[in-house]
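Sat 14:20. Reprocessing the chain from the morning session after the first attempt stalled halfway. Input below, unchanged.
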Amino acid sequence: MIDALQNLPGVWVSVAAVLGLLIGSFLNVVAYRLPKMMEREWRAQCADILPNCTPSTPSTAASALPPVFNLVVPRSACPSCARPIRALENIPVLSYLQLRGRCKGCQKPIGARYPIVELATGLLSALVAWRFGFGAQALTALVLVWALVALTLIDFDTQLLPDSITQPLLWLGLMVNSFGVFTDLRSALAGAVAGYLILWSVYWLFKLVTKKEGMGYGDFKLLAALGAWLGWKSLPIIILLSSVVGAAVGVGLIILARRGREVPIPFGPYLAGGGLIALLKGQSILDWYLSNV
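Finished this time. Tokens:
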């Protein structure tokens, strides 16, 4: 099997695509449940520290969750009728098409985001497999891409970048590069430190000038993790790409969607996009830039 994956690129790309579809289905669960789990934990901590604390009504209905609620339990169910989703109804993309985008029980529409995330994760996984071939780079890059997809979804929904993903991602990047998979350990360590300090400095400079917070600490940790994976040389590319795309989207939302300037825009998805481009084409972009300077 390993010989086939190594010697037949088409087989490896196909396997990665199918695996990506399955992981994409799980990432939908992560994006939905992890913020609720975090809120429940915060409220429990608040109650332990301040017994008389009466926090405001939970925005995610954390108080209505079942006693055991994690990434595995309870089983996924329709949010409208609470009908458990059967295994044959949970096949990535295909089940959505078979059900014609509606719950089999109550016939309420199923959000198109679910198959879109599954399909996008499958395509990104296939792209990584095609770019790196079968080996340590591809296998570890898949983990990075899946984590970036999860962070993108959560940040879009809640403007949170959970430590439970960003911090292990940082340490995993350093561990991977201790074997020189993407860069040497010295470059990875410098990338982690520089990635955090760059956005940390921007945050405080913006706050001193405007008296407002321009980004969250999760953004610092995400850029630090990307620096740990791809090395310090990738940071200018990631920052430039994410800033340009973020600015363009922000201006577009203000002009086209008439979104107020005071409405915060999550920066994590653009950092994730910049990191993905740097992972796949970072060296080519850097070589092109240096050859034209």
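The chain has a mean pLDDT of 87.
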